[in-house]
């Protein structure tokens, strides 16, 4: 990443978009201090995050990466590990599951929240990718962190679940700051500000309306994706 300068204010919903390999996940990992910048600084308020205790910093961030972990443990543990002190608090685990849409999936399992999410165990069950994604979202909800980073949180969700998540994202995270990475332009358009990454740099930023008016890279990608839904002849042809 080069020449990247961005500011995220408390309570904002910020979206990062850009083509594959443009650096979105790398930027998220830098914010979590999984990587240290070779030059420049990342400051939380006025403090350089390179100078703070990494564990403390990470406790202040709830993050779901694209390749989130699937633990061969119970549904309760898979969610409760988001906030280690609440792993035995079924009410907190259930509340997070309700918010993420995982509750109906889990209650249908043979032992509910005590079902091991792996088919290798007696009465264990595996979940579909989209169901796992709801569990991962619950894991992020349960942690009372001021910064929430969601890297492609809806890639495997069905359209209704995706719609439900994004129409409720501000209510879900009231008072928290959200960094959302997504290739779905319909979901990022409601962000307060959108940063467009290209080849490790910020190519554009602004609100959806500002970026559409600028008629640049964002407007091109948004229009391309929207056209696939609205123009019957522009989509791929299966034969
Ligand atoms: N640990 C790493 N070391 C070196 N290069 C890396 C590392 N992780 C990713 N990259 C490279 O950095 C570039 C940006 O990757 P990144 O995962 O940040 O892209 P992205 O915008 O999130 O892409 P996608 O939309 O596919 O998820 C890619 O060229 C990738 O190969």
Automatic annotation (TrEMBL):
Swiss-Prot/TrEMBL keywords: ATP-binding, Nucleotide-binding
Domain ABC transporter: 1-224
Top-rank taxon: Bacteria
Gene Ontology molecular function terms on file: ABC-type oligopeptide transporter activity; ATP binding; ATP hydrolysis activity
InterPro entries: AAA+_ATPase, ABC_transporter-like_ATP-bd, P-loop_NTPase, Type_1_exporter
Entry-linked PROSITE patterns: ABC_TRANSPORTER_2 (PS50893)
Pfam families, A to Z: ABC_tran (PF00005)
Record's protein name: ABC transporter family protein
Organism: Kribbella caucasensis
């Amino acid at each position: 990443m080069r020449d990247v300068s961005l500011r995220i204010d408390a309570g904002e919903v910020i979206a990062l978009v850009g083509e594959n390999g443009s650096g979105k996940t790398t930027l998220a990992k830098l914010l979590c201090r999984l990587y240290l910048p070779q030059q420049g600084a990342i400051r939380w308020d006025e403090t350089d995050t390179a100078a703070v205790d990494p564990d403390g910093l990470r406790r202040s961030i709830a993050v779901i990466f694209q390749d989130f972990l699937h633990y061969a443990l119970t549904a309760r543990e898979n969610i409760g590990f988001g906030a280690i002190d609440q792993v035995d608090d079924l009410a907190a685990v259930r509340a997070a599951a309700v918010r993420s849409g995982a509750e109906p999936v889990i209650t249908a399992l043979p032992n509910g929240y005590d079902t091991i999410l792996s088919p290798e165990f007696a009465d264990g069950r595996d979940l579909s990718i989209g169901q796992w994604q709801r569990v991962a979202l619950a894991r992020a909800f349960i942690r009372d962190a001021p910064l929430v980073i969601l890297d492609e949180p809806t890639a495997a969700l069905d359209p209704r679940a995706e719609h439900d998540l994004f129409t409720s994202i501000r209510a879900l995270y009231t008072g928290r700051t959200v960094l959302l990475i997504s290739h779905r332009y319909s979901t990022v358009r409601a962000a307060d500000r959108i940063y467009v990454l290209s080849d490790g740099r910020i190519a554009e930023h602004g609100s959806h309306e500002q970026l559409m008016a600028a008629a640049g890279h964002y407007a091109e990608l948004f229009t391309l994706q929207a056209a696939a839904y609205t123009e019957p002849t522009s989509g791929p042809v299966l034969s």
